[in-house]
Amino acid sequence: MNDDIHALSGAYAVDALDDAERARFERHLAGCTACQAEVESLFAAASELSVLTEATPPASLRAKVLGDIATVRPLPPLTAPTDQSRDQAGDQPSDQPGDQLGDGADAPPVEQLADRRRARGLSRGWRGLVAAATVAVLAISGFVVWRQVNADPARTIAEQVLAAGDATRTSKTFADGSTATMVRSGSLHKAVIITSGMAQPPGGKVYQLWLQDPTGHMASAGVMPPGPDQVVVLEGDASKATGAGITIEPAGGSGQPTSDPIALFSFA
Q1: Could you read off the pLDDT of 184-213 as tens digits, one per residue?
Q2: Is the separation of the CB atoms in 136 and 65 below 8 Å?
Q3: What is the per-residue pLDDT for 138?
């Protein structure tokens, strides 16, 4: 069980505590306005995450989350020293009501916060994974990126990228007259490909998109759907990429390119 009860607010908000920890935290939450405010803000953040555009995560995401989460440690909220804590320096924070700043008049009742947590309906089997992913997403820049590209919910990500003031465009024309145009917005961290008259890939194959980093490494940016005319948002952060490419890969895509690119787009 976590000795720093304030640090449990994030796990509580995503229903990732066991029964004993949850009961202990809710007793603490009844008198801690700082934790009440933090849990309320995490509920709001989770609600915003629900409106993000769904996309298949890149193969590198799992390794990045597992690598980054080891460096993330939530800090407890600042608390005012009580008379007892002044007399007994070094004691652990009290779990009793009234041990925190404020009287809780403007904070949601703890029963309401508990009901909202339960209403999220997360199954126990996913609690640990969701808690870990939530901490990582909120802590790293990816959360900021998705907030940026969803600044105008009335417009799709592709529309926002195409209309961005810093959008750059590079076009390729294939031998059969079909075209592909790559548009990137560094401020939105996204790239979009627009195809016109694109021939179908060979049987059992797909067109796969890639983002190239400064070292020349190609990271998968998704598989293009079938059809000659497409507008597709590339997966991943395009702001640091130096270019993008298209290869022909086996159905389902590949972890690394298995063929030479049929088109390369420079972001320089």
Answers
A1: 999 999 999 999 999 999 999 999 999 999
A2: yes
A3: 47
Q: Nearest CA to 196 among 222, 230, 162? A: 230
pLDDT 10s digits, 111-131: 666 666 655 544 444 444 555
Residue 253 pLDDT > 80: yes
d(CA 141, CA 145): 6
The DSSP call for residue 215 is: T
Give CA–CA dist 105/121, Å, rounded.
28
With contact defined as beta carbons under 8 Å apart, do 11 and 131 qualify? Answer: yes
Residue-range domain boundaries for the chain? 5-139, 159-266
pTM: 0.46
**Spatial contact of 93 and 6, defined as CB atoms under 8 Å apart:** yes
Rounded to whole angstroms, what are the CA distances from 225 to 191, 222, 233?
Answer: 16, 9, 11
Strand duo 205-212 + 218-223: pairing: antiparallel
pLDDT band, residue 140 (cuts 50/70/90): very low
Cα→Cα distances 31→7, 95, 173, Å? 15, 8, 66
Q: Are 224 and 209 in contact (CB under 8 A)?
A: yes
CB 185 within 8 A of CB 163: no
pLDDT value of residue 177: 93
